Amino acid sequence: MKKKSSVWMALALTCSLALGSFAGAGAVSAEEAEYKDTIVWVIGNDQDTLDPQMNVSNAKVIPQYYEGLVGFDTDGNVVCRIAESYESSEDKLTWTFHLRDDVYFHSGKQCTSADFQATFDRLLDQEHPVRHTASYTYIESTEAVDDFTFVIHLAQPKAFFLESIASQVVMNADYIEKYGTELGNTAESVDGCGPFKCGGWTKGEEMIFERFDDYYGDVAETETVIMKIVAEQTSRAIAIETGEADIADGISPDDAVRLDELDGITVSKTDGNGCHVFQFNCKSDNTPIQDPKVRLAICYAIDRETICDYLYSGLGEEPIDSIMAPSVAGYSSVGVLPYDVDKAKELLAEAGYADGFDMTIMTTDVYNRGVEMGEILVEELKEVGINVTLEVVELAVFSSAWGGFTPEEFNEQFGWDMFIMGSGGASNADTLLYRIMHSSENNTNNYGFYSNAEVDELLEKGAVTIDEEERDECYRRIAEIVIYEDPFGCYMNLRKNVYALSDKIENFSVKAANTMNLARIRCRA
Question: Could you report the per-residue pLDDT of 290-314, keeping only the tens digit for each?
């Protein structure tokens, strides 16, 4: 029989101060329905923006407000959304989507192909690129044939075309014109076709999801979901324990073990499609990081097995054996780079740095145990003569660093030689890797300025190779290069999607990309 810890109950007051007042958020009277009208969800970090073409926070919020031509079901298969059907030409260069005529934006405007045209015009504008423009250069043009027929013309065949398009949602053409670059900065500028509309957004505090009763599919089970921003993991754990929250996101490994032993709480731990990676600034002008031997030495000096056992055993997370998760199409296991201090010292000596050097690593608690992981790296790299200054940054600083800087601008403003990142969120290797590794000048998502001619060639080949076996070999070779030969970063742990839930929560499920279907979740009163 599970027993509730009196020590943690005594911390309820602390939790209340950290969370603010939840009074009445989920309470129901005897006269009300069996299920709550409001569910409270506590999460560690807010969104950087609600502009779906600029958002990089995570895959949790945007899909609640917006939808596109196609999407993914719970098993990761591509299914129709706003497009009720589609077909392609024989050469796979022309794709025609037939839209539903019963889809409306939250503002009440009917969604038509003109909105898709405006959305893709914005996405594909090379003169004013958005964050994901570089991932869609394979699209030659788009065409709104009539109100409910939308055509996409490709410059070349695309191996994962439908999966790629599933990541793009439609925006109201009127809002694109009205708000411009300010779209997504406020609740009022959010107008999607998803199951929830944005009922309010106080940045850094809370976001409100209100059921959209005119949604073309099954309307949401719960009227309101309140997402509370609670930075401290301990405070999120206490919130679920005291009943002040119904869902707690991103709890610590220690809390996951403890909460799972308590009455009334379930801890959900499912395989994700992302990992932690300490990425190299390959254009650093402060250190010899530009030398692949130096980067490889750093990778050999890191004991991933011990780090995962020490920091993440409570979640069941282990070192990643590739550059993508097994759930990502194109995955191949190439093994975990071994911990080898002697090899690291040998490589440093070959590169001319037998006595080591000084460097800076950025980390943040935006990622679960990110700070602790950075602290361990400091100690491990000291063993091979590398003296690390660890810089711990807040979310605002972290988010500001990924703004399409040149190497010179990045080095002047931030100066990090390595920095923690989350890699994942995509369903296929092309979408995941091309935008972060290809050295194209317009690739603003290559934050570490990585450049390898063979990797570029393989990325380009994999993007257009239809034969699955041949395509997978391209991505396997990329993994070998960026782990064992010319490192992109130090790949660490394969992440789990971890949530603590009240036992009263029903229909909870989460995809590998860490996206919940909030519309199906409900909570008994």
Answer: 999 999 999 999 999 999 999 999 9
Residue 166: name the closest of 484, 425, 481, 485 by CA: 425
CA 232/CA 365 separation, integer angstroms: 9
Cβ within 8 Å of residue 13, ≥6 positions away: none
Concatenate the DSSP letters of all residues of 164-210 into one string: HHTT-----HHHHHHHGGGTTSSGGG----SSEEEEEEETTTEEEEE
Q: Which of 303, 287, 281 has its CA nearest to residue 448?
A: 281
Name the E strands within 238-324: 247-249, 265-280
The DSSP call for residue 284 is -
Give per-residue pLDDT as tens, 180-226.
999 999 999 999 999 999 999 999 999 999 999 999 999 999 999 99
Q: Are 478 and 323 in contact (CB under 8 A)?
A: yes
* Cα–Cα distances in angstroms (integers) from residue 4 to residues 10, 13, 252, 505, in the given order: 11, 16, 18, 19
Residues forming beta bridges with residue 288, ordered by sequence position: none
Q: Which of these, 387, 347, 404, lies nearest to 56 by C-alpha position?
A: 404
* Residue 483 · residue 489 · CB < 8 Å: no
Q: Report yes or no: 209 and 227 within 8 Å, Cβ to Cβ.
A: yes
Cβ(287)–Cβ(358) under 8 Å?
yes
What is the mean pLDDT of the segment spanning 142-147?
A: 98
DSSP letter (8 states) at residue 484: I
State whether residue 235 is helix, strand or coil.
helix
User: What are the tokens at 460?
Assistant: 């380009």
Q: Tell which residue, 396, 294, 287, 282, has the closest CA to residue 350.
A: 294
From CA 51, how far away is CA 186, in angstroms rounded? 10
Rounded Cα distance, 190 and 200, in Å: 10
Q: Are 468 and 486 in contact (CB under 8 A)?
A: no
The answer for residues whose C-beta is within 8 angstroms of residue 412's C-beta and 6 or more apart is none
Give per-residue pLDDT as tens, 62-84: 999 999 999 998 888 899 999 99
pLDDT band, residue 150 (cuts 50/70/90): very high
* Cα–Cα dist 96/142, whole Å: 10
**Angle, helices 304-312/370-382, rounded to nearest 10 degrees:** 150
- What pLDDT score does 444 carry? 82
Candidates 502, 26, 47, 513; CA nearest to 226 is: 26
Tell me the pLDDT band of 19, cut-offs 50, 70 and 90: very low
- Encoded tokens for 162: 């439908």
Strand positions, DSSP E, 348-488: 357-363, 386-392, 418-423
Q: Across the strands, what pairs with 362?
A: 391, 419
